[in-house]
Amino acid sequence: MSKVLVIPDIHLKPWIFDQAEEALINTDCEFAVFIGDLVDDWNCEKNTKLYEETIQRAIDFVRKFPETVWCWGNHDLSYLWDQYDHPGYSLFAADMVVDMFEELSDSLGSPEQIGIIHRIDNTLFSHAGLSNEFVESGLSDMMDDIDCMIDIINGYGVEELWEDNSPIWVRPQYGTLAKGMYDHGLFQVVGHTPVREVLLQGNVLTVDVFSTASTGMKIGNEELVWVDTGTGDWGYTE
Length: 238
Hints:
The chain is α/β, with parallel strands linked by helices. It has one domain (3-236): Purple Acid Phosphatase, chain A, domain 2 (4-Layer Sandwich). The chain is 29% helix and 16% strand. The chain has helices at 15-26, 48-64, 74-80, 94-107, 132-138, 146-153, 158-161, and strands spanning 3-7, 31-34, 69-71, 114-115, 117-120, 123-126, 187-190, 199-201, 204-206, 225-228, 234-236. It has a six-stranded mixed beta sheet with strand order 4-3-2-1-10-11, with helices on one face. Strand 5 (117-120) and strand 6 form a beta hairpin. Helix 2 (48-64) packs parallel to helix 4 (94-107). It is globular, with a radius of gyration of 16 Å. It starts with a strand and ends with a strand. The mean pLDDT is 96.
């Protein structure tokens, strides 16, 4: 069982890694899990220096903490999968983003540490969450074998994952999922949907509390949390 620090959506705010580093040093968290969406923010498409600064800060972070577990978000994958029409996509920074993402991946301890979804003990980490609808649509034969499903999902590409119910797009926070989120005794930690404070709904914990509105106004309380991957207990780092 592990106590991990959760790093939520960054969206070109490199200073969040400063808070994360301080938390890892000053708490008993064993390592960090990043929930995805390192890049893109409102009206930042031409600010290539901010893209470079943010990704470089992420690279420096994982070099210092190579045991970090990394989830891809929809904004990140839009560059790897050439989804040019994705909101916030920067044509100006695109080539640099792809190159630096490769450097980021190479800086982690092993290739298995970066992907769409990860299981650590009894907790699933992904950008948006694993929904029952997504499982039933293509993984129903193995829905009782979470590790097999994770291997398959981490091998998926744009065709399978660029869907509203996928682990990079689903929004359970809106309460409109007829079949709910995958449970089977597992806790889920997600980002993707901005919330005012860390939100627990059923077995899903939403941690996207650093995002801003299009005006630049803060949406959330900008606090990091830890999660006990065995019990599903969680709390703020301060």
